[in-house]
Amino acid sequence: MDPASPAVGGEDDALPTALEQRLLFSAVDYVIFFSMLGMSAMIGVYYGFFAKQKQNNTAEYLLGSKQMKVFPVAMSLTATHISAITMLGVPAEMYKYGIQYWACSISGLIVTIFMVYVFLPVFHELQTVSCYSYIEMRFDKRTRTMASLLFMFYCLLNTPVIIYAPAIAFSQVTGINVHIITPMICCICIFYTTFGGIRAVIWTDTLQFGAMLCALFVVMTLGTLQLGGVINVFRLAEAGGRLIWFNMDPDPYMRTSFWLVSVGLTSMWISNIGVTPECVQRFLTIPDMSSAKKAVWIFGVGHILVKLFSVYNGLLIFGKYHDCDPIHEGTVQKYDQIFAYYVLDVARHIPGLPGLFVVGIFSAALSSMSTSMNTLSGTLFEDFIRPRFALKDETASTVVKAMVLTIGVICLLLVFVVEKLGSIFSLAISVSGVTSGTLLGIFFLGMFSPHVNGRGAFWGAIVSLVSLSIIAVGAQLEILGGHLKYESLPFRYDGCSGFNETGTETSTFYRDAAHHDNSEVPWVFRIGFMYYSLLGTIIVIAVGIVVSILSGGQKERVPLNLLTPWVRPLYRSLDYAPEKGEYKLTRSCEMTEIEKIPK
């Protein structure tokens, strides 16, 4: 039986119980689900064929002619970063390991501040479609090329994980195999992204995010009421050991702790939100800096709230099944499916609610997928095709659309690889950590260290990428081999029907991977996956500074607009001596363009 397929409705299973028969989609659910997909497709049709703004040039297709409003852009950003991994993976993680992930709210606040005051001013002044053109301005062409390839690598590996997450949810609630539903959903997303451009992406994101919020709030409200209120939800969670607020253990080999979440995820999110084309491209669709900052703050608050809601949903799941774990009972095959099962269990008497929930899950995934396809195509076009070929606007637009189609097909094919790997939560963070730390290190060197040169940035990124790839791949192989496991919190099953009918039961609970010892796994593969991005950033900065010093430092003046506003006041007071690669204090140095200082 397909490991991604649910126990419910499988053709190889025994006859389902009465409860399992009820935990499937109704006709109303199917109508709601396919209506939302139809509306998304129609938005693509409108902007592709009927809107006044024709998608026949790259400025309109990729940036919406820089005339988008604050609210839809903020909603689009939030929808993009609240993927199905957040909706499904986070509640499952909380159910299994406790709520330490709440500390992501601290990371979210730090990321928002960095975006508003460090990165956004630089990118909005430059007004480039690809944020990696900054790297060429600051360093050199080969570093920019490598950064673009890193982003492509990230999108092609991360997007299939995002698509797979809602597919297993849909499989749980319908009994339809993921291999059937995944191509259908991907084709709809590829269609409206290819023909509608960034306008279709942003407005479908807004529509889908609204559906996702509706599903989230209804499920949270219904689940809380069924458990007797918020206080009772937390009481059950505390009794089950799920309320882990401050695990201050500094051990880097743990699966989760306060430091792993608040410090480790901060660097990953700063990279994924602050210096990736999918975010920078959206900010540039807004005409002025003030409005762009408003969009960032709205996004930041929304991002944090939805993450915390997902943490709370994990408590709701535990409260519902605190004495009868669905995995042990056999009604759910994988922990990543447990939230979908919970929704059907709680809302099976309310027609349409399960359909609305799955719409929300798919909305999150479609938003992330459409964003990845649109921004990756724009990045590859700006960095690899435009510099080499002189294309008319209409031809260029057609080329970008063809690239969107190609990227979508590749991501679809890779979904069938993802289903063989580990949990979607850890897998998504691991994949992102490999590239995000490296990219963040390059931008940090560029914006904060005017003496670092292109050679330092390039070799720092190479060392970081190779190191993190070895760690991530090695850890994944250890997981697949069953050598690297983390003991879960206890799950009770004494409340399940038929418990101890034989009178031989000696326990009322179990732990997943109980008493498993990871000490035989090489220490480098035991490093917590949430630290990957931070480790990558540190490697780039350390190696970049050393190589720059050894190679003589930066030989040209760095324009002020390539440095973050926090550094510009200091840099104004420095006189550059290229023959020594040093700075000395003065009061008169103003730098506005790249120029060599005469000897």
From TrEMBL:
The identity of this protein, by name, is: Sodium/solute symporter
Membrane topology per record: Multi-pass membrane protein
Question: Highest taxon of the source?
Answer: Eukaryota
Q: Which Pfam families match?
A: SSF (PF00474)
Species, as recorded: Anopheles dirus
* GO molecular function terms noted in the UniProt entry: symporter activity
InterPro entries, per the entry: Na/Glc_symporter_sf (IPR038377), Na/solute_symporter (IPR001734), Sodium:Solute_Symporter_SSF (IPR051163)
GO terms under cellular component: plasma membrane
**Primary residence:** membrane
Q: Which NCBIfam families match?
A: sss
Recorded family membership: Belongs to the sodium:solute symporter (SSF) (TC 2.A.21) family.
Q: Where in the cell is it found?
A: Cell membrane
Per the UniProt record, which residue ranges are transmembrane? Answer: 30-49, 70-92, 98-120, 147-168, 180-202, 209-237, 257-275, 296-318, 356-377, 398-418, 424-445, 457-477, 529-550
Gene Ontology BP terms: sodium ion transport
Q: Which UniProt keywords apply?
A: Cell membrane, Ion transport, Membrane, Sodium, Sodium transport, Transmembrane, Transmembrane helix, Transport
